Amino acid sequence: MSETTRCGFVALIGEPNAGKSTLLNRMVGAKVSIVTHKVQTTRTRIRGVALEGDAQVVFVDTPGLFRPRRRLDRAMVAAAWSGASDADAIVLLVEAHRGITPGVEAILATLAEQAGERPVVLAINKIDRVKAETLLALSETLNAKRDFAATFMISAERGHGVPHLREWLAERMPEGPWLYPEDQIADLPLRMIASETTREKLTLRLHEELPYQLTVETETWTEREDGSVRIDQVVYVMRDGHKGIVLGSKGETIKAVGSAARTDLREFLGRDVHLFLQVKVRPNWLEEPERYSEMGLDFKDGA
Q: Is the pTM higher than 0.70?
């Protein structure tokens, strides 16, 4: 590594499902952000740390920007713009096949106020879904709407174009010492990564039945003498009927979720994991400040 090091923050913004979490995981080279086909799955600003040459790039995966209806939605959107305003550079992800939606138009309008002097990079994602001429036309139209610092055509899922984007960003990070140890890939507490992992499995398993009516909290994290870890978690739902859905017939759903989450956590932590899940009904968890604190959100932002 050269004597001069660089370190900075890059905010990934875009509509829900634009591929921000997939891009973050691809940039970092590990799974640190929850990735599902449901929209609005990222509830907090998840930071992933990537190394590129002499630069440490800290990626902030913000919640998808959308028109908020509930307190939780408003807190998520506030967190997203806060993540962008704190960054050294901003990457706007636009889905190639969806093009310039009303949501993208709204983000562009807010960027004009929020971005200031920060470089904003356009990343057109999911390029494998459209023809080359469609891509070029979309790029031209978007660049006519805003003077982007650079435009990249990428597939976050397949990795196409991602190394070039990472190199470009790394070269433009400010000079300064690295903020994280060389082997650290995320600044989320392990307890929150564990909660997010279980929530991802629940979201994937439950499909449309219950996606946003639940939250997962890690109650205890116990290091065991044999090097393994015991993790006790609570799944909070809003109604008794929801509890039955999460448990499933003879507890099959919660067992499958626990097994899938345990496998991911074992791989992520590199050691044995004993995961225990409980399901509890809390009708008003969406209005409880402590639930927001657990998610890394500010309860007041949802007012």
A: no
